[in-house]
Amino acid sequence: MMIQAVDLTKTYSLNGNEVRALAGLTFGIKRGSFTALMGPSGSGKTTLMNILGCLDTPTSGEYYLNGRDVSGLSEDELSEVRNREIGFVFQSHNLLARNTALENVCLPLYYKRDRNPVEKAVAALEKVGLAGRMRHYPNQISGGESQRVAIARAIVTKPSVILADEPTGNLDTVTGAQIMDILKELNNTGVTIVIVTHEPDIAACARDIIRIRDGMLEKSPSAA
Length: 224
Ligand code: ADP
Ligand code: MG
Hints:
- The protein has 224 residues and is of the alpha/beta class.
- The chain has helices spanning 45-52, 75-85, 101-111, 117-127, 143-155, 173-188, 200-203, and strands at residues 3-14, 17-29, 34-38, 60-65, 68-69, 86-89, 161-165, 192-196, 208-213, 216-219.
- The relative contact order is 0.21.
- The strands form two sheets. Strands 6-7-8-3-9-10 form a six-stranded mixed sheet, with helices on both faces. A four-stranded antiparallel sheet has the order 2-1-4-5, covered by helices on one side.
- Magnesium ion binds at residues 45-46.
């Protein structure tokens, strides 16, 4: 299993109120799989993705990434795991406006003190079909192209898992389908993909579907 979650809970404290976002989730995601995470708004999808991506820690439960229990790691240890294993694609692409596409894709490699950032960033941009847009700034490219830059930024460090939280949410159907094609291609090269979506035709690209509601599992192919 690439991902094994055991009775994960997450409770947020907000102004003295407790919000139970995850109420005990147990499931596995296989290495090399393509999984859609579905559920109504507020059901805990983003909370779960943040934990799976080591951006946040669960309140209780265990999370094994690649066989390693990462639920109790410190901030520093988490960021190291994140840099090594995880690529993120968000609904809004979060590109730095003052940097070119190429510079945006180089960024994760600078953090890793990579020796050939430009070479690798160029290759990643070519992979998403943006060889002709490297020197463009985010405001000079379309929404779909921006999302492709975000995917290039996510894959440039060669992560074993890509976590995409509604990556097609802001895109038209055709452009969304192009993004899905890129994710499918990545999956064919062995990258494990987890994608949050509301849209059934997007979820149809996935081989497994995990449904959550009120922070609980509705149905999972590999629920333990
Ligand atoms: P989804 O992505 O499925 O729409 P979220 O994971 O964003 O759901 O939210 C799940 C629940 O947790 C919601 O009730 C939301 O209001 C709450 N929540 C999310 N983030 C926070 C936070 N940082 N502080 C307090 N409550 C939060
Ligand atoms: Mg969300």
